[in-house]
Amino acid sequence: MEKITTKGIKKLFSLTRTKIRLAKEAKTEYTKPKPLPLIKLLSGKDIDTVLQAEEYLDQLKEKIDYADNKSAAKTVFELMDIIEGVKYKFEPLEFMVNVDYEKLSEIEGKAKEKQMPVNLLLMTEKERGGLNLFVGYDQPKNTIFLSRVPTTLAYFINFAFNSKYFSDGLKLKNINVILGHRTLILNAVSFAIGDFGANSINETTK
């Protein structure tokens, strides 16, 4: 694993703790949804409350093995799940997920019909051929805006793990993840999606 990825995961831990603190300050008691779906799927744990999320965060920090890519990637997904699950009372709308289950089902249907992958564009400057979900600012044409922030990809990842077209068990397929801008957290998220099977493309090395 690259050093920047390790740093990105550590930054994601810090961001998760901040979001939990803000959730507690906003008097948020429960996660949304409950239980948190990726944690339930990947670890079999029921996380229903902010306090449970905080306790689980501590457990993740204790047991992560940065030398084990699968352990690290799984932790990234679970941290994303916590962030998205606790922030609903205080986060500005632009930093929330902009697509719902119906829209994701529509995207899946189009991808199946045309037998093409979905491109997850992480702050790229241009769209790619096919179906494009964009994260970031300065949205390119012919893309579907997911959110300003990459942790919202937790919604798509959960959808993908429950889709026969986008996954085979816990192995992602028919998904490209394109890293267009190199930040610590973007790098960690891109790494995790790629480690779980998506085709990973790094435009920042060009």
Cα distance spanning the termini: 20 Å
Order of helices and strands: HHHHHEEEHEEEHE
Categorize the overall geometry: globular
Q: Order of strands side by side in the largest beta sheet?
A: 3-2-1-6-7
So what's the CATH class of the largest domain?
Alpha Beta
Alpha-beta classification: alpha/beta
Oligomer class? single chain
Radius of gyration: 16 Å
Helix content: 40-55%
Task: Kindly describe this structure.
- With about 210 residues, the protein is of the alpha/beta class.
- The protein folds into two domains: about 5-95; about 95-205, Rossmann fold (3-Layer(aba) Sandwich), CATH 3.40.50.
- About 45% of the residues lie in helices and about 15% in strands.
- The protein has seven helices and seven strands.
- It has helices at about 5-25, 35-45, 50-65, 70-85, 100-115, 155-160, 185-195; strands at about 120, 130-135, 145, 165-170, 170, 175-180, 200.
- The strands form two sheets. The protein has a five-stranded parallel β-sheet, covered by helices on one side. A two-stranded antiparallel ribbon has the order 4-5.
- Helix 1 runs parallel beside helix 4, helix 2 (about 35-45) runs antiparallel to helix 4 and helix 4 crosses helix 7.
- The longest helix has 23 residues, at about 5-25.
- The protein is globular and about 45 Å long.
